[in-house]
Amino acid sequence: MALIVQKYGGTSVGNTQRIRNVAARVAKYRAQGDKIVVVVSAMSGVTDSLIKLAKEIMPLPNEREMDVLLATGEQTTIALTAIALHSIGVAAASLTGAQAGIVTDGVHTKARIQNITPKTVHDLLNQGKVVIVAGFQGETPEGQITTLGRGGSDLTAVALAAALKADLCQIYTDVDGVYTADPRIVPGARKLDEISYDEMLELASLGAKVMQSRSVEFAKKFGVVFEVRSSLNENPGTLVKEETKSMEDVVVRGVSLDKNQAKITLVGVPDKPGVAARIFKALGDATINVDMIVQNISHGSGAPATDLSFTADKPDLLKAQKVIDGLKSEIGFRDIIATENIGKLSIVGVGMKSHTGVAAKLFETLAREGVNIDMISTSEIKISVIVDLAKGEQAMKAIHAAFLGS
Ligand code: ADP
Ligand code: ASP
Ligand code: MG
Questions:
Q1: Burial zone of 396 (CB within 10 Å; 0-12 exposed, 13-18 middle, 19+ buried)
Q2: Which residues pair with 256 in a beta bridge?
Q3: What is the per-residue pLDDT across 215-232, written as a single tens digit (0 to 9) for each?
Q4: What is the topology classification, in CATH, of domain 3-174?
Q5: Ligand 3 centroid to residue 152 C-alpha, Å
Q6: Which of 191, 193, 210 has the most ligand 1 atoms within 8 A of CB, as the residue to mutate?
Q7: Of 18, 39, 41, which is best to mutate to test ligand 2, by the most ligand atoms within 8 angstroms of its C-beta?
Q8: What is this structure's pTM?
Q9: Nearest to 102 by CA among 142, 188, 176, 160
Q10: How far, in Å, is the centroid of ligand 2 from the Cα of 150?
């Protein structure tokens, strides 16, 4: 008898018929004698509309209250999924994140899982029930409701699979698996049979929202092999696992485009020790994730000054501007310019470690497309460039064709 964790994303539980389909799939596994833990997301669009409601009232709502609000999305789905299983005669019980023993730190809207005490989950499984757990949410040791960052139901599934020592972890979504690029943007994208944790982590962090990046980080840390597959058909999906030697033969595994980034430039920042530390400490304290950072050489006459640009997640832009504004009198920069019209285009592959000329080919392809490069960052297995948002998709298709052939 196997213990299987299955996670169903928003589209897969998007209406009551889809929820019935999920119940039918779960029932099929259950009939084989397996123990099943189901993790569900909010029905598609629900989390977004809850955020919109709050922002109609004020632009920067209190984050504790946002967690109380957003957790209701998944709470609706767990109950409906349990009801759907009951309707076909399968014993099932729903649990909120807190009831499932998911304990997090207190960083509201981006909480990290500290530990999981799955006693109730085990008890219910031992009673022969399918256990349905609300994704994306947990509770602090003090009993505060928290959420795990957008897309966080993936993390709930992977973390539960680790805590329960599950035999299988399946992530059901609305695509057949992980593709060489988002198939909604690049029609020629191909499904991958397997991908390494590191490649998946880079792709996820760089905008491929098929998996939440933190969930991949967690899977790598705890060695949780998982499969991304479709809830709409029976096709085999993509296995995400430790890197194997043969994976290095492929130079570029995938291409991603992150449209969810914003850029802030501080103009005329005094070029002296401690300034960057002050700025990024303040952003860090406000739990703003900063990604690329570029500092120009000093310019102007008199006291040396420079321009400093960085990127952060779009939803954090207002908060970041507020933090930086608060530093203006202390630091004395001249101006702050914020833009949301950027896209981060990236190529990822463990093969880059052992192949040369990859960056040149990327830049040449962008030049041919007439796409200007605003910022560049590289690691051992990825190259990212910031481009004009309006040209992002065109550039992505060209890059995919250049490296992956269609
Ligand atoms: P879920 O609601 O099931 O969590 P998401 O919408 O979060 O699903 O993620 C699935 C979506 O991710 C797909 O519909 C697809 O458009 C997008 N996506 C982006 N990059 C990729 C990729 N490389 N491979 C597959 N899907 C991708
Ligand atoms: N409902 C949450 C979101 O939309 C979590 C998830 O779907 O994984 O981000
Ligand atoms: Mg998702």
A1: buried
A2: 346
A3: 999 999 999 999 999 999
A4: Carbamate kinase (3.40.1160)
A5: 7
A6: 210
A7: 41
A8: 0.92
A9: 160
A10: 5
